[in-house]
Specification:
Helices cover 74% and strands 0% of the residues. It is mainly α. The protein folds into four domains: 134 residues, Alpha Horseshoe (Serine Threonine Protein Phosphatase 5, Tetratricopeptide repeat); 110 residues, no CATH class; 111 residues, Alpha Horseshoe (Serine Threonine Protein Phosphatase 5, Tetratricopeptide repeat); 101 residues, Serine Threonine Protein Phosphatase 5, Tetratricopeptide repeat (Alpha Horseshoe).
């Protein structure tokens, strides 16, 4: 008797966890990212470190424009299993949206090596390479900044912190006049501030006693050091392929000839101010303090509006980002009308500056405002405009699902089914079981409304298979119930 009770009590937390996970997934699909984060957080309290839950929350953070938090969760999901491909993809995505394209490229490559059949890694490699090519230009306009100190390898052998940040800042580097061999000089020019870290790591490898040590998780320290060096070598090779140093040096000299005066440090100071301000605004919103986030965003907006284009060449782009921040804060506060106004201003500025990613962001947010207020026709209108701007299959399967869900709410079942099929095709392309499940459910619901019961049952059965593969009890139970109801409509 006591054993039976004990088993029953032991199942309860698992059931609650599955329910919270399912709620988080559903809220994410509906665009209610803050509520989804709350569900995932509650689930993690019951099952700390669950990698699927961490990835789910990471995706929400990314949608809310908080890539730093998304990165933390993605890295946490890889703590116990560094080959977890969903975590690798999410880490790459977070790095990409932080503007750290080179390191995003490293993790897209790592994921592709582990799961070559998943097209999303290939597409990630492509978009990261394009972003680097578009942003690097002349090295005189690129500042590589390391967030984190590689001296952890010397100070604490039980703690491993990968290099996770490259920040692009429009600031010139001072020329180095040290005479070093040509090959080393090339490497130094390409790596910039990373060069000293590369030399430091190489020196560590020469310490035979040191490299025999192991990390807390049991990984040999030698492997960690060699892994870091591999990252740096990969970046060096890629940057040289994108724009060889000889071409970079030529461009640098041409730029020097065109300038009669050295560039003022004012722009650098402005960039630092904006970076810190945007971080503060995001942090306030993440912590649930939407009012303080809104206040800070408005203050920064007022400051930026007083600057000239000379001080901030990308002033309109910055203003667009601030309108997006203000809009998101207002959404959290429930002021949808004002939120919509700011997201529309973000869209207008993105169009003026011809910034596809900013346009995609604004269209996404406008669609979310309309969907959350039940204006599904308008939500569809703006999300459809976003489709040509979507690059990856992962984002595509989400977008098609959202549009299909809106059509389902409008009782336009044929359109809902069609977008469900498109969502499923995108999910199949990257072999994402969770999205394959979601898309099949949408198709099944649409077929049910259309009276196509055999197709409905087939789609529910496929969805059930994917749910079982994910060991998702909540989703499995819900789909099984819907499948049983659908089967009642089949001819006997």
């Amino acid at each position: 008797m006591s054993d039976t009770v004990g088993d029953h009590d032991g199942e309860k937390p698992k059931g609650v966890f599955s329910t919270l996970m399912a709620d988080g997934d559903w809220l994410y699909l509906k665009g209610q990212y803050k509520k989804a984060i709350d569900s995932f957080t509650d689930a993690l309290a019951l099952k700390p470190g669950d990698k699927y839950c961490l990835v789910g929350r990471s995706k929400c953070y990314l949608k809310m424009g908080q890539p730093e938090n998304a990165l933390k969760d993605a890295e946490a999901s890889l703590k116990e299993d560094n080959a977890f491909f969903e975590g690798l993809h999410q880490k790459a995505e977070a790095l990409y949206y932080m503007g750290e394209f080179e390191f995003a490229l490293v993790f897209y490559h790592r994921g592709q090596k582990l799961r070559p059949q998943i097209q999303e890694f290939r597409l990630g490699i492509q978009k990261a390479q394009e972003a680097i090519e578009n942003s690097v230009g002349s090295p005189s306009s690129v500042k590589l900044e390391i967030k984190g100190d590689l001296s952890f390898l010397q100070k604490d052998l039980e703690r491993a912190q990968p290099i996770t940040a490259i920040q692009r800042l429009d600031k010139e580097k001072k020329q180095q006049n040290q005479k070093i061999p040509k090959s080393e000089k090339t490497t130094k020019q390409l790596l910039g501030e990373f060069y000293s870290d590369k030399k430091y790591l190489e020196d560590l490898l020469k310490d035979e006693d040191l490299v025999k040590g192991k990390m807390k998780g049991g990984e040999p320290l030698k492997n960690v050091i060699e892994s870091c060096l591999t990252y740096l070598d990969t970046c060096t090779e890629f940057w040289n392929q994108e724009k060889p140093v000889c071409a970079q040096e030529r461009d640098r000299k041409l730029m020097q000839q065109k300038r009669s005066k050295p560039r003022s440090s004012a722009h650098s100071e402005s960039a630092q101010f904006l970076l810190k301000s945007l971080d503060d605004i995001d942090e306030e919103l993440t912590s649930g303090n939407a009012e303080e986030s809104l206040k800070k965003a408005k203050e920064v907006m007022k400051t930026v509006q007083g600057w000239s284009e000379k001080e901030v060449p990308n002033k309109k782009e910055v203003l667009g980002s601030l309108h997006s921040c203000i809009g998101n804060a207002l959404m959290d506060l429930g002021d949808m009308d004002k939120a919509l106004d700011h997201h529309q201003k973000d869209l207008a500025l993105a169009k003026q500056c011809k910034l596809p990613e900013a346009m995609s962001r604004a269209l996404d947010n406008i669609g979310r405002v309309y969907a959350q207020t039940g204006q599904f026709t308008q939500a569809i209108e703006f999300w459809v405009k976003k489709i040509p701007l979507v690059r990856g299959a992962l984002e595509k399967t989400w977008l098609f699902h959202e549009i299909g869900w809106c059509y389902l709410e409008l009782d336009r079942h044929k359109e809902a089914r069609d977008y469900g099929v498109r969502s499923l095709a995108a999910a199949d392309e990257i072999a994402d079981e969770k999205w394959q499940m979601n898309a099949n459910v949408l198709v099944a619901q649409s077929e049910m409304k259309l009276g196509n019961f055999e197709s409905c049952v087939a789609s529910f059965e496929r969805a059930l298979t994917h749910a079982n593969l994910q060991d998702d009890d909540s989703a499995t139970n819900a789909i099984q119930k819907a499948l049983d109801e659908a089967k009642q409509h089949l001819p006997q």
